[in-house]
Amino acid sequence: MTATLPTHPLRTLTLALDPAALGDFSLTGPAGLLPADPFCWLRRGEGLVGIGECASFTGTGPDRFADAEQWWKDLLAGAVVVDPVRVPGTGALAFGSFAFSKTSPHPSVLVVPALVVGFRDGEAWLTQLSTDGAVPTAGSAHALLREALLCAEMADAPGDGAAAPAADRTAAGTAPRGTLRAGALTEAEWMDSVTSGVQAIERGGLDKVVLARDVLATFPEPVSRVSILQRLVQSYDECWTYGVRGLVGATPEMLIKVDGTTAQARVLAGTLDREDEPAGSTGFAAAVLGGSLKQRQEHDFAVRSLTRQLAPFATDLSFPAEPFILELPNVWHLASDVSAELAGRDGHLPTSLALVEALHPTAAVCGTPREDAGKLILELEKMDRGPYAGPVGWMDGAGNGEWGIALRGAVLETPTTVRMYAGAGIVEASDPAAELAETWAKFRPMLQALGLHA
Q1: Nearest partner of 212 among 100, 49, 87, judged by Cα
Q2: What is the pTM of this model?
Q3: Residue where a domain terminates, one of 162, 177, 202
């Protein structure tokens, strides 16, 4: 664990901004101006973009959430926060990504950016954060913003002699496409693992296990991280596009969102590929997904898992009796939105990160019972998931935050290699070939963002 506090206290200054003055900074426009290596949490033109780093936590193991929470509390204890805007996401803020497994050596991180641009309900704001002893001012904050916008414009300008990103040239057909190869398991080996998972369920004691696999894309030249984020924002606006260091993606699943005393989650389980979309598509999806015992069973396991873990923190918990159909460009999902009023303990409400620790991993990405499913995942997947299916998002100094599950994403392992992950919920009625096809449907957002085809 690397949890050293900065020498100087955290200082933050938040200023209201005119949204019109930012142009396409939020990535929603066709040009999508953004600095080269941003932190990102965007959906429907709202969210947060972070630039630079001024403090960070790194940890591994079973205590990674608790250690990160303590580091954040210690950092806030001496913080000087000036925040006249006062909405979730202003003031002190950190982006985070946590490894799926407590046994993973992959680092879990909280990172405090140097600058944040936020968008919410028609409002925009700018926050400068500092741990170097400097006192943020309106002048210094706007200067950093101008510098970021200028760098983005220069990177986006045509005819500057810079080579286009490999993925861009691939899409245009002017350079060789990247190559795809199997990761830890071949397709046949992974289907054998699915068969083993079904057999374990048939023996009793296990209701569901989620099995993931990885594929590795290799490019002849460096991949543009910003181009990936831009394409995901433009094509998957209903999802939360995230970027935390090398982790990028667009998740449709909200593990937990805390806004004051209210918590919300979106549970997904049950998937239907849209590649061969028939006429009357939504009705078709409702009939196929809603009428499938296998899909409904998988979804019910996921909803019960989350509500059971969330209940001790809530005074009121609600979710619909029937799931709805979530329509995404690549798939349909059975989805349920859960809401709760948070219960205080000793005069304090749980923070978003405390709820993350209690809820992760849900049945939607692990299985049920959780411990048994987790052990079987380690046995059958033959890989380290790293941050895949782990919590990713942000938290502020008031305990608010949004934490998605890192799905439909990838890790940029080197400038020219990208590792993608996808999984499927395995129940007793699962068919290995159908589950394999489902993983390819879930790979599609990242393949499209990289200009690749399976």
Answers
A1: 100
A2: 0.91
A3: 162
Query: Residues 166, 416: contact at Cβ < 8 Å?
Result: yes
Contact 268, 405 (CB under 8 A): no
Instruction: Please check whether residue 440 is in contact with residue 212, taking contact to mean a CB–CB distance below 8 angstroms.
Output: no
If asked whether residues 12 and 46 sit together in one domain, one would say yes
- Asked if residue 412 lies in contact with residue 382, where contact means CB atoms within 8 angstroms, the answer is no
Q: Tens of pLDDT along 342-367?
A: 998 777 899 999 999 999 999 889 99
Q: Mean pLDDT, the chain, as a whole number?
A: 88
Answer with the one of 143, 162, 181 that is the final residue of a domain. Answer: 162
DSSP secondary structure of 380-444: HH-S--TTTTSEEEEEETTS-EEEEE--SEEEEEETTEEEEEEEEEE-TT--HHHHHHHHHHHHH
pLDDT tens digits for range 419-443: 999 999 999 989 999 999 999 999 9
| CB 189 within 8 Å of CB 215 | no
137 and 207 assigned to the same domain: no
Tokens of 366: 């692990």
The number of distinct structural domains making up the chain is 2
Query: If residue 267 lies in a helix (H) or strand (E), which one and from where to where?
Result: strand 262-273
Looking at the structure, tell me whether residues 236 and 354 fall in a common domain: yes
129 and 223 inside one domain: no
pLDDT, position 32: 47
CA distance 354 to 383: 27
Q: Are residues 242 and 304 in the same domain?
A: yes
CATH code: domain of residue 180: 3.60.120.10
Can you tell me the mean pLDDT for 177-193?
95
Kindly state whether residues 216 and 266 are assigned to the same domain: yes
Whether residue 171 is found in the same domain as residue 230: yes
Q: Which residues are CB-neighbours of 169 under 8 A, at least 6 positions away?
A: 175, 221
Q: Residue 318, by phi and psi: left (phi above 0), alpha (psi -120 to 50) or beta?
A: beta
Q: Please determine, for residue 157, whether its predicted confidence score (pLDDT) is greater than 80.
A: no
Residue 351: what residue type? T
pLDDT confidence of 29, banded at 50, 70, 90? very low
Token pair for 253: 């699943």
Catalytic positions:
208, 253
Domain carrying residue 29? 1-162
Closest CA to 364 of 442, 303, 290: 303
Q: How many CB atoms lie within 10 A of CB 103?
A: 12
Question: What is the average per-residue pLDDT within 59-88?
Answer: 97
The CA-atom distances, in angstroms, between 164 and each of 156, 171, 174, 245, 317 are: 10, 11, 10, 21, 50
Extended beta strands in 113-261, E state: 115-120, 123-130, 179-182, 208-218, 240-244, 247-251, 254-259
